[in-house]
Design a protein that fits this description.
14 strands, 13 helices, 5-stranded parallel β-sheet, Rossmann fold, 2 domains, single chain, 410 residues, alpha/beta
Amino acid sequence: MRIKTTSVAAFAAAIAMLAASPALAQKKYGPGASDTEIKLGNTVPYSGPASAYGILGKTYAAYFKKINDEGGINGRKINLISYDDAYSPPKTVEQTRKLVESDEVLAIVGNVGTASNIAIQKYLNAKKTPQLFLATGASRWNDPKAFPWTMGWLPSYQAEAAAYAKYLLKEKPDAKIGVFYQNDDFGKDYVRGLKDGLGDKAATMIVAESSYEVSEPTVDSHIVKMKAAGADTLLSFATGKFAAQAIKKVAELGWKPLHIVPNASSSLGSVLRPAGLDNAQDLVSATFAKDPTDPQWNEDPGMKVFHAFVEKYIPEGKAMESTVLSGYSIAQTMAEALRMCGDDLSRANLMKQAASMKDVKLDGLLPGVTVNTSATDFSPIDQFQMMSFKGERWQRFGDVIKGEVAVAGQ
């Protein structure tokens, strides 16, 4: 009888442990999820005017293949369904409806482009389908009250500009700032972040503002205006070729302001070389990721893993390693959110876990920069390190700066 009593007690204790353990809780699945599979979807411009970003879609697929080769996530293989939207919002809508209603994916991940994502944002939120880790830095993705099913990945333009404001307030508090910006959401987000970051000092520190249209053949007149206003600090919130024109014109004028350009326009190949490397000396920008082409990272453990990934899974990406690293990092973030879900692969739990990331380290992020989210902050990355262009490469300096901005709807 004693043996029987002990067995019953042990059995009861085991049942209690099972009931108390969330890891052993009953499995729960949303659309696209099962014991063996997690179905994800996205649209990417494999053709059309932004087809260069098609490499992002190929990188997501390659990363999930790597995950599957290693046994999947919690024993489940990732099935990524990716359609071409040609960078056309109507096409994005059509293909996204197919992904949600016909393919029945668990979530949309890594979609490319601001306009394309705006086109499907209301639809996906109405369908309560996660729209996660988007390849766009617009501030509208961080609005958990209005759009609780949408979360970006790239640092917002506002957060980046707020980091520049923090840098200037500390290092050059008497700066006379000229702000040159693209007259659209891209440029206006930067201006908003700068002014918010400067706070009460914005009114006295900013001495001139000038916006340009993307249809303008040259922005020379805007740069002349900034110099004439007496600015000793120039913030060029401009995209590619316009940033290059600004850098070149500053040099032609013999003007020597502290010149800051956004991370999006810090590319050596597409911006600085066309502007002339001599003209780009001492240019300042900010970054959050490692540069896979910079030899300083050759012995970095995370970059060794990344380079091995490129070599094995996407060798055609070697020519565009910086863009590939972005895709790799987005996919790595998604994989971590799915791991955090355990056996509850409902859409609601996926969003809950995506909004519960704390100091998550990724192979491609700078030391000190981590992924952090909460139920009230849907901006995974808002940390930056300043960098200055010297010789033929960017050199980082100073501490990691948090670009703090107000969350939409709060």
